[in-house]
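hey m, so remember when u said the tokens were messed up on ur end? i reran from scratch. heres the input so u can diff it against urs
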Amino acid sequence: MVPKSKRKKSKKQYLMSAREINMEVIRLCCSFPKKYEYYLCTPIADTSARIYENVRKADSINPKNRHELELRTDFLIFAKGEVNYLISQLEMMNEFERISPSRMEKLMSEVSKELESLEEIIKEDKVRYKNYLSDIG
């Protein structure tokens, strides 16, 4: 067993993080006043679900050629775009009804980590699968 201080971040942590973000956003939306359900909560919950969906799709692709690598990268980029959008939507949500600072800070921290993880994975994929990218100008 590896001591906690020596453990490295799991390669699949971004997948679990996306799921946890989705679950926390749904919990947050369920606790929000009903009057915001259709215009604010439903779109935000959909956005968090799309993040998880795109991360799952990207993770399901083990590239064996350039096309598969492009598909994987596209899903990661879509997820990254949704994360950026989620950040702005959560800030707006907080302006309508104050969310407890500790809850908001924890959620925004998780979302920021997810964004960093996605950027890191895209960079790692470029290095890992560089033989598929060699014919790109």
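this time it looks ok to me. The radius of gyration is 17 Å. if urs says something different then somethings off w ur setup not the seq
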